[in-house]
Amino acid sequence: MAEPGTAVRSVVIIGAGPVGCALATLLRRQGRTVDLFERGAESGTTGSGLSFNLTLTSRGLDCLPRSVKRRLYLQGSVLVKRIIHHRDGAISTQPYGTADAHHLLSIPRRVLQDILRDQAMRAGARIHYGLACVDVDTARPAAMLRDDRGETRWVDGDLVVGCDGANSAVRGAIAAAHPSDLWVARDVIEHGHAEITMDYGDADPAGMHLWPRGDHFLQAQPNRDRTFTTSLFKPLAGDDRHFSELPSATAARDYCATEFPDVYDRMAGVGPDLTTRCPGRLRIVTCAPYHHRRAVLVGDAAHAVVPFFGQGINCSFEDTAALAGLLERSGSPIEAAAAYSEARVRSGHALADLSLRNLEELSDKVNSTAFLARRAMERRLHELHPELYTPLYQMVAFTDTPYDAAQDRHRELGAELDALCRGRDIRREQDAIITEFAARHGHRASGRWAG
Ligand SMILES: Cc1cc2nc3c(=O)[nH]c(=O)nc-3n(C[C@H](O)[C@H](O)[C@H](O)COP(=O)(O)OP(=O)(O)OC[C@H]3O[C@@H](n4cnc5c(N)ncnc54)[C@H](O)[C@@H]3O)c2cc1C
Fold this sequence. Notes:
- This protein has 13 helices and 20 strands.
- The protein is α+β, with helices and mostly antiparallel strands.
- It folds into three domains: about 10-75 and about 100-185 and about 280-360, FAD/NAD(P)-binding domain (3-Layer(bba) Sandwich), CATH 3.50.50.60; about 190-280, no CATH class; about 370-450, no CATH class.
- Strands 6-5-14-15-16-13-17-20 form an eight-stranded mixed sheet. A six-stranded mixed sheet has the order 8-2-1-12-19-18, sandwiched between helices. A three-stranded antiparallel sheet has the order 3-7-4.
- Flavin-adenine dinucleotide binds near residues 39, 163 and 299.
């Protein structure tokens, strides 16, 4: 074990989910000894155990080694647009961005997990299964692990990293031992989610299909094998055991026939799909800082967000690159851990906020032609004046601008655009609005240069 201030030679990672494995690969490439301790069994599921698809964007993908990225592209589906199925049967599309690189890579969670675990092992990381972390000593630093028989032992390293997800035991142990040093807030939202089996039919494979219906929506992600991974997001009933107003298979079928008539005949098992399993709850966990002495929190252990921006794991992969980069630059684990918090906390908090706000966009706003016209105008503005304006979605998904900086910039420029658009027909006056926006900034820029 190294003294504070000396090099980080060995790292103990708790949790061999996608984020733990991605971090392990980066740290092994720096020549460190990496041991991952995973409470799940080797043959069983690691990760959250859920089967939904994850959408990766360049923000997260660019933090992974090129060989991993290549393997992910071979298995995932490239989605370039939202395909919006309106209530009246009309279909509209909304591109995710303005360039080829502006796409989502949708990949089944299990496939992502297998690729990242395989890569970590090839890089020389050791994964120990069936060992659950139950305590952490951040000064030593060390993690206490409990095996299947209930026996415990401590493992030491130069740094302990909690990659153990939204219910992180590492975070819990730090908060319990040092309550005044770690602030934690937890929340659940009223929406839950459940997977529905839906036949693919002749669906457009290049887009994320969306059925926005007010306070709820259906989402279907095409897979390479011409299947859909389909999820319903809807408020839950008071007991959380089923969705509101869907207490029975008959009610669930009636609901889908009314809300999604264009695809209802492709959901043969929707009654049991929505009633035999409890829907998943969606939680938000925020904390600060993301470290204590020589222990750090990475991924959902630091920030569990609702999935409406599809950025949870992208942010987590950014965490791994940030931590690995700081460890490379600083010889001291304590310095690197503190710098990691400094670099990542504001961004994580902003993502929690952005993700929650995007629920309204997915479930309702994309229904509105005025909203779609505004987004189209923003894309056009970006194409004409990329130095002046980047749409929020594009900045969040396809750049490495910190989430908090993206949010601030959008607030400021969005308010200006709001003022210019007020009372006008955006579709007819798009060019005039863009010209006025650019002129205002041109004047401002020349004013600054003149000063
Ligand atoms: C419905 C839904 C959809 C989502 N969609 C997207 C999306 O499209 N795009 C996106 O970017 N993000 C998405 N996310 C978020 C994404 O799933 C998470 O950000 C990601 O799984 C975090 O990975 P992780 O490795 O940090 O945590 P997890 O995946 O939870 O893995 C944690 C690992 O730690 C292990 N573990 C837990 N406790 C212990 C312990 N005490 N000791 C040892 N091991 C332990 C677990 O078994 C697991 O293997 C979505 C989330 C949800 C819920």
